[in-house]
Amino acid sequence: MLPLPLARLHRDDVLIAAVGLFGGLFLWAVGPRSQNGPVLDAPWTALVPLTVMAALELVRRTAPRAAPALGTLAMGVEVLTPGNLVTVLMYTDLLYAAVVYGTPAAARRIPVAAFLFTVGVTVGLFTWTRGPEALVVGILAGLVCLAPALTGVSVRNHREAAEAARLRADRTALPAEKDRVRAVTAERARMARELHDVVANHLSAIAVHSTAALSIDDPGTSRDALTVIRENSVEGLAEMRRLIGLLRDGSGEPEPATAPTLDALDTLVAQAATSGAAGGLVLTLDDTRPAPDRLPAPVESAAYRIVQESLTNALKHAAPGPVTVRLGRSGRSLTVRVSSVYGDLPQPRAPGSGAGLAGMRERVALLAGEFEAGPVTGGNGGRIWRVRAELPVDEGNVTS
Fold this sequence. Notes:
Layout: H1 4-7, H2 11-30, H3 47-57, H4 66-78, H5 85-101, H6 104-129, H7 133-215, H8 219-247, H9 265-276, E1 281-287, H10 297-317, E2 321-330, E3 333-341, H11 355-366, E4 370-377, E5 383-392
Parallel strand pairs: 1-2
Antiparallel strand pairs: 2-3, 3-5, 4-5
Helix pairs in contact: 2-3, 2-5, 3-4, 3-5, 4-5, 5-6, 5-7, 6-7, 7-8, 7-10, 7-11, 9-10, 10-11
């Protein structure tokens, strides 16, 4: 099994090592020498540092600390041999890679060490020879050691700056994405409430009257039930088309969205009374608010939808008897109460999903109001199902 650095060889490092090795072999075969009068005069001795340097290029990225250290030792051997230019070039690449891929501490220390080495070689050689060749050697030392280290510092700084910019962009994009998800979720919840409140009323009437038509063997009753079923089907289809139009991108023909108001409660209760007559329901509206009393649009819309959903539930689940809708104003709040008889039904109950109560609670919660629904004891000792909502009203937004 390969050691960990070798197991993670990068494709570019392998390519650099292969090009360096074969390039160095080519120069060695051609015959030019980079220096004269070496200690190790045999031509083959130049292949030793060349091969070591090519092997170190394989781990230039995965072992950025060990590679330049061993490469420096190989360069010490290189100066004793006839020399090979490719060996020197690969050493400069090892110093560059050590700065770019090494630790932050190594990236700081290597350029300093290269600078001190360059100055030391130049000053030491000048002190010894007192000749201009010391300056030439100093320049060569700078090109071999200092130049690749400074280039690595520049590249590393650019990469770190780019990474920091990317992280800042990610941190900025994350809250924006969360806001977008919350907005989409809230809009989907709002559309789900609208769809349930608007369409469920018509479907409940259809369910109640279809049950009556199937259970009562009377042509007149069946005709009346089918008439109500048709009316609710047409109205429900129209509402569905309106909601679908609101979901389009504007290329179709959506109808303008109009928020329901409490002025339309008379019509809503009358429609529910017609639908509930077959089930023995008697609907009444008791509005004790001062007139005229215009409330903020969100309050009126929520109150209307709460009454609409409560009447839908009464059509599906209430026992025969009175269904009362009461509206009242008390200070800074609007009170909505809908009560119906709680008991057994003579016919099968229409199925319910519980989404209606959840939708009403959500509407009230959005206005920071209070909501309760459940069976309570009525004034005559009987059991009634009561829905009660307290909707806060901002007096500054109320127009009379």
